[in-house]
Write a structure and sequence with these properties.
The complex is a heterodimer of chains A (153) and B (160).
Chain A: H1 27-32, E1 47-53, E2 59-64, H2 71-84, H3 95-100, E3 109-115, H4 119-126, E4 129-133
Antiparallel strand pairs in A: 1-3, 2-4
Chain B: E1 4-10, E2 13-19, H1 25-32, E3 51-54, E4 57-60, E5 73-75, H2 88-95, H3 105-118, H4 124-130, H5 141-159
Parallel strand pairs in B: 1-5
Antiparallel strand pairs in B: 1-2, 3-4, 3-5
Helix pairs in contact in B: 2-5
The chains are: A alpha+beta (153), B alpha+beta (160).
Chain lengths: 153, 160
């Protein structure tokens, strides 16, 4: 038997934490509400964003009312994030790009953002996207492929 | 822009803020008054993370209009510890390891306080029913229930 595998004559029992029930180190901050989570931070010039998810599995965006949601701000914010990640040349998808996409899947995310707006304004801006439902790509009855009707939303 | 001027009392201290008519109390507490201890979990009154007391009554602050706090008493998690000393519930949550990520914790503690304020000796079933409006997605409820029952026992001892 190698020396490594040889059991200690006297097992050590005077551990500081093993076998004990220590209070978690972040506990006091969490039970007092003092702990700062991501959503708890406020910084100067901070922008708010929401994710709007397509209610349809297959749809085309007809229009995006950008009066409330400013795509340009989103674009520059995204570029800033990429720059911070050291990848300044990665492409940035804008709301305009997304409007050309014909294939939106269930829960496809569409970005919307507005500077210096509260969450209520963001929520309203998020509703400014109009779309049209397209026929399903696949169906339980394959024969019906291509026969679906598009519903105006 | 017509904002509402609201004067209220938060955790025993006079407070005032300007808010939109449709703004909820949670937003006012977090964004206007900087009291971010109350969390937004769902925003629809299902999860209890935003629980506060309004004139001693347990409410989800996401479903209360900020303007409704006018001339009333609001109690949040920030008002639980007194003079740098943790409330018994806070202490017991730590001792019983009744939290992990901690997002639901302020809501649970505020809700439990509302229970113990009106019933100092609740049964386990009563605690479970009372806290049914608070959701925890990591620790599980058992440790939370034990922490609350132990807190109740501790508080009864203090009174006796």
């Amino acid at each position: 038997m190698s020396a490594l595998l040889k059991p200690r004559a006297e097992p050590r029992r005077d551990f500081k934490y093993v076998g004990k029930r220590p209070v978690r180190h972040d506990g006091p901050d969490k039970v007092t509400g003092r702990a700062n989570y991501g959503a708890d931070f406020t910084l100067p010039g901070m922008i708010h964003g929401v994710v709007v998810r397509s209610p349809f599995a297959h749809a085309r965006i007809l229009s995006i009312d950008t009066r409330e949601a400013e795509g340009a701000t989103l674009h520059s914010a995204a570029q800033q994030v990429l720059a911070n990640l050291g990848r300044p040349n990665d492409p940035v998808i804008t709301v305009e790009d997304l409007a050309d996409t014909t294939k939106l899947f269930a829960n496809t995310a569409i970005p919307a953002v507005r500077t210096e707006a509260g969450r209520d304004e963001i929520a309203r801006a998020a509703q400014a996207i109009e779309g049209r439902r397209l026929p399903s790509h696949c169906s339980a009855k394959p024969k019906q492929l291509g026969k679906g009707t598009s519903d105006q939303r | 822009v017509s904002r509402l001027h609201v004067e209220t009392t938060v955790n025993g201290e006079a407070a005032e803020f300007l808010c939109e008519a449709q703004e909820n109390l949670l937003t006012a507490l977090r964004d206007r008054l900087g009291l971010t201890g109350s969390k937004e979990g769902c925003g629809t009154g299902d999860c209890g993370a935003c629980s506060v007391l309004l004139d001693g009554r347990l409410v989800p602050s996401c479903l209360v209009l900020a303007a409704e706090a006018r001339d009333r008493q609001v109690t949040t998690i920030e008002g639980m510890a007194q003079g740098g000393k943790l409330h018994v519930l806070q202490q017991k949550f730590l001792e019983h390891a009744a939290l992990q990520c901690g997002i639901c914790t302020p809501g649970f503690i505020v809700a439990a306080k509302a229970l113990l304020d009106r019933n100092p000796d609740p049964s386990e079933e009563e605690v479970r029913y009372w806290l049914a409006g608070n959701l925890c997605r990591c620790t599980g409820y058992d440790k939370i229930i034990r922490a609350v029952l132990d807190s109740a026992a501790e508080l009864r001892k203090e009174i006796a």
